[in-house]
Amino acid sequence: MTLILLTQFVSIISFCHYARQIRGEDNSTNVVKVDVGIILDMDTDVAKVMHTCIILALEDYHAASRSAIRIVPHLRDSKKDDVEAASAAIYLLKDVQVQAIFGPQMSSQTDFVIDLGNRVKVPIISPATSPLLTVKEHPYFIRGALPSSSQTKAIAAIVKNFDWREVVLINEDSSYGTGIVPHLTDALLEIGTLVSYRSVISPSANDDQILRELYKLNTMQTRVFIVHLQPVLASRLFLKAKEAGMMNNGYAWIITDLLTSLLDSVDHSMVESSMQGVLGIKPYVPRTNELINFTKRWRRRFRQEYPDMDPVELKVFGLWAYDGITALAKAVEKVGGTSIPKFKKADTRENLTDLDALGTSELGSLLLDSMQNITLKTGLSGDFRIVDGELQPSPYQIVNIIGKADRSIGFWTEKDGISCKLKMNGKTTAKCNNKQLGAIIWPGESTIVPRGWEISTSGKKLRVGVPIKGGFDEFIKVEIDLKKQGVIATGLSIDFFNEVIQYLPYAVPYELFLFQLPDSPTSPDYNDHLDYKVSSKEYDVIVGDVIILASRSEYVNFTLPITESGISAIVPVKNDDRKNTWIFLKPLKRELWITTGAFFVFIGFVVWVLEHRVNKEFQGPKHKQIGMIFWFSFSTLVFAHRERVTSNLTRFVLIVWVFVVLVLTSSYTASLTSMLTVQQFQPTISDLNDLIKNGEYVGYQKGSFVEYVLKRMKFDSSKLRSYSTLEEYKDALSRGSKNGGVGAIIDEKPYLNLFLNKYCRKYIMVAQTYKTAGFGFAFPRGSPLVPDVSRAVLKVMEGGYMNNGQQKYFGNETDCPQKDGMDITSDGLTLDTFKGLFLIAGASAGSALLIFFLIFLYQNREILATDDSMRHKLSAIAKVFNEEKEKPNSKSEMLGEGNESQMNILFAASAASPETLPYLPSQSLERTASPPYEGFSTTEGGTPVQEPITEANEER
């Protein structure tokens, strides 16, 4: 019993000793202390929030950890000064020999401190957000907050969501303000939005300077402003923006994450009076039970630490500080042992500076390896992950400032973009469009989405450039009004532009400016001059006959086309061939005539071969048989063949051949009919390659890019001629290539349609040769007017205005029948059209001929089986083929012989006594008639007896 009590007593003493070690109450060597430096601007609310969070983080770690390691914080105040921050870092590294430093919080202060960390190999965990501080260039730098560059894609997504094409960036003239500029510009360019102007405001700028800058911005056309300022400077900016009338309807303001996250530190009265309707983004922090409980603890501790301060809200920077210190403590616990090595002292030399005397940390590199890639899945700020020394982005929350605070209207993640809601794990549940993003109250208490662009309040009008060029006045004609010292422009293009302006949802006053083309023959082309004037922003838009091309879109932005597209050619029409003596030959091409004639002869030969031995009509003298071959096949052309056929093979061949002849004759008739009615609209040249082969001259419009197209089509430069008016086109075409003119004019379709409306009876348009987008209005790249003008172009086109305008300037197109060469009938039928028919006819005739010869050779196989020479065998076969085939003895044949004997008796009787013929029985006469043969025959019914009777009478 005594032994048991003694054992329990020893166990209790051992447990209490171990517990004291855990709590750090024992000063023995088992407790390992790790010094950590903290550098903050204690004059700021953010620093005080972060300091309180750091204290709670260390208390929570020591309470939960059983390790003997204790982290001892050493706080130093940088007093908002870069030199003070550097001095504090040197003190902590040299005198305290801290193993890590948390801070400073300002980017300008951090820049020098992380250089010290690299030198002494001590990790610097800083919440600085400037993208100019990179972890790649500073290996001992670990960013404990999101860089400002991580929000740029979220801002670009908001801009894209409302289809704003230009924005103005207002940033602070500091390392904090300038670091975001290249990243935000790139993110906006990816969605096709330009930063039209960048306003840089100094932190020391007074209110008058800020107001002058805002008035300057108000004279511009862009109405979307992205503000990247710290809270103090931003509050002054919005007060002056309200004074300048820039917080009214039509304006859009977006603030970055720092200002949005620290909005509660800005004067509430200023927010309520000057920031209503502003959009903002900030890192999303999930509201968990742990965060709710921690917030209550933090408020109590904050009041203890700073009892004289007004209550402030817990900010995301404080949560990042809590998670960052917790991650540092876990890293120290992972690499720490029974003792923490101190700094390795520098070589002892005289006159050492403070920097030279710092030495290097032996633990810093181990801590760095643990901190560079660490994850806190249960962090207060959410999923706290550091990868390669960089805090990974979390979802961003999109808010709308209404009243004294902000209201959530959506979320953004890099994977899913803008979304309506988020799950607890940060994944989206539903995507949004403009109407589903949440009810937004815009500046001026408006619910209408700002267009992002307005006519400037300075009274500046849209500068519209109109070109002067000779010819084609129907599209654009410019005159100078000497009395009013102004420009007067008429034509289809300017009328259409006036109509488009009326369809815009806002008033756009404009003024016409004359554009004079250079007279130098070496000057660039007409359209290239226009593109240069627009891209240099000398004009806001060019209105004229400007063709839309991909190469030009690199310098200007075009609206939707206002005319039809494409490059075609016009050529003279052929003379009226209806008076041509040989027009009946033109329905069929030469190769089709030859093939048809050859097949007539071939089919006639096949029929003769098949019928020669069994049909007396295909026998007789050689000249008769040759004539029969040609006669029979050609007589089928008009279905006038009278010869009967007896062979089934012959019938099979003729069935197919008659069908071929039927198709040929029908097609010939239709083609000839068409030629006799519309032949006058046939072009002289249907293929542009014929122009190159024949060496024809080709005309084009002077100054047009068509010259480049022709050269690319391998046209000889010496064969190209330029013209400026429709009259010059007509004169060149009428004279032709041989008389100093051209064989064809190649130009853009709108010009050719204009030409054909005047001269459609003599000229015709052939097939399209080059695809273009038509005429359009040219604006400078990035002009916010382009989408609205394009929509207005669609409305005008749908309203039918273009048809009325073309009739006004071009005339009535119905007076010109079939002006488009694509509607012209074929010049003649080709062999390719009937290849299938001839193939079928040839195959049927050839197969029938093959079958006949196989049967014939089989029947005369005894000849082939003899020992005679091949020559004798062929001779014998030919002799047998030329002999008439013997008919087998049959009842019908005997009947035929009897009838023949009766006929001979009748012929003799009639010769001796003609009077006896009337007394012959009618039945006998009927039996004398030859039985009808099966086959193709057009002969009428009758008795062959009448012919010999007539001959007998004639002999008598």
UniProtKB/TrEMBL annotation:
Q: How does it sit in the membrane?
A: Multi-pass membrane protein
Residue numbers spanned by region Disordered: 921-956
The organism's superkingdom is given as: Eukaryota
Transmembrane segment boundaries: 592-611, 652-670, 837-858
Record SUPFAM superfamilies: Periplasmic binding protein-like I, Periplasmic binding protein-like II
Sorted UniProt keywords:
Disulfide bond, Glycoprotein, Ion channel, Ion transport, Ligand-gated ion channel, Membrane, Receptor, Signal, Transmembrane, Transmembrane helix, Transport
Gene Ontology CC? membrane
Where does the record say this protein resides?
Membrane
Q: List the disulfide bonds.
A: C760-C816
Q: Which InterPro entries match?
A: ANF_lig-bd_rcpt (IPR001828), GABAb_receptor_plant_PBP1 (IPR044440), Ionotropic_Glu_rcpt (IPR015683), Iontro_rcpt_C (IPR001320), Iontropic_Glu_rcpt_pln (IPR017103), Peripla_BP_I (IPR028082)
Would the keyword Nuclease turn up in this protein's UniProt record?
A: no
Q: Name one GO molecular function term.
A: ligand-gated monoatomic ion channel activity
- Any signal peptide, and if so, which residues? 1-24
Q: Which SMART domains match?
A: PBPe
- Primary subcellular site in the record, as a coarse category: membrane
Annotated ranges, domain Ionotropic glutamate receptor C-terminal = 461-812
Q: What does this protein do?
A: Glutamate-gated receptor that probably acts as a non-selective cation channel. May be involved in light-signal transduction and calcium homeostasis via the regulation of calcium influx into cells.
PANTHER family linked: OS06G0188250 PROTEIN, OS09G0428600 PROTEIN
Subunit field text: May form heteromers.
What's this protein's family per the entry?
Belongs to the glutamate-gated ion channel (TC 1.A.10.1) family.
Name this polypeptide is given:
Glutamate receptor
